[in-house]
């Protein structure tokens, strides 16, 4: 009996997860509301204080004016002061807009009041300081309710207090005066809150689009994933802004371009990269699988534009090992073709020997076979006797067969000699194949191209030997060097060096083109597609092993490579051609 199980549903986090834009919106709305409310309260308190001060000044002026009036002083001594003062006080009250004007005797008994039934009753408030000849204000609750009032004395000719005058404005009247400004203040506050909220909403809507509605934790995790991914990929990745400054450079790119220290924020053309690579990156058109050489590596470059002109992204792939393997594959393929050609030629010669035997020409058959064997064995014996290093010996034999197939005679000079075990382990066989193989291939091509202009048959001469101490100068005038290092300079050492020299009978290298010989893409062939990388790889391999490359001229071009048998303390700095 089988029991079907269902996958456990993924638990969603408890509570709503608000995005970063949403959280900022709430915080900004609260801040705007608090600022607007605080401003409104402060404005109200300020306005209320100003209104109360204005009311106090108004009632003080009214009370002093009434107390200083001669008619009031004259009415105080009359038999019925109320009959004279009541109409006068009401007229002044109406004209000045105060709530009440009360004239009283020194005992506080009212002679006037807005409410006639309050006449003759005692004044509600403090009159002690007025009896002492002073004018003071207070907020007191009387018959009309809370009011801001002033009590001032009425003085006779002898400056004696004969009566008191009080004028006041009720708090309710003051509040009524504040109602209009308060409503306007509330309207302004509401409008400010609405405008601030709308602006905050629009800003956060844009932020929400840019953050894809993610929360702070999600953005932090996304950044960490982004950094981990960029630095873990094996391809080199470089991001540039619109000013061609480095925004990001992962670990693989640092290794491929040999960049040290802080590179973020620095311009691309200030990193010491090859001029051809910088020109390709800064060009208007994107680059697709373009091969470039750095100081020690062969890299494949791709570029593309970020967005609408925000910058540029560079991807770099290490092509060094693949390029070396391709060179070795080309060498093996050449060996195979040479062996096939030799087998075909041997078959032809064997048929010739068999035919001579069948014709009874035995002596001629032996002489023909012996001569052919001597010619074939002579080069083999010469190479094997002079070059004990198996990689170089095999390469020379294979290249000799290739050259012979193409009608070019490849010879090894008499002074060539390399014993087995002399080359150090640090000098890899792959670099030897790269250096000597590319030099011979270029020399064979040049010799074939120059055969049409020379009566002599095309020829390539190879010199391979170990030199101790100072370096020997080239047999011809030296026209240029692959890294600008003088012979016997930084590349030479007490342990000596390996000298590899290849000369051809071609047209030679134009002196004006010496500066461009070791650039990627330089070639003398008319159809240069796929060419122009050989000499650049030679210079790179020599520089990687602390050696030098020289360009000279004899009957044709002469290229000399010197590789130290002991790596110098510091490799010579390459000089861009």
From TrEMBL:
Histidine kinase domain mapped to chain residues: 341-567
Membrane topology: Multi-pass membrane protein
EC number: 2.7.13.3
Catalysed reactions, semicolon-separated: ATP + protein L-histidine = ADP + protein N-phospho-L-histidine
InterPro entries: HATPase_C_sf, HATPase_dom, His_kinase_dom, PAS-like_dom_sf, sCache_3, Sensor-like_sf, Sig_transdc_His_kin-like_C
Domain of life of the source: Bacteria
Record GO terms (molecular function): ATP binding
Identification of the protein by name: histidine kinase
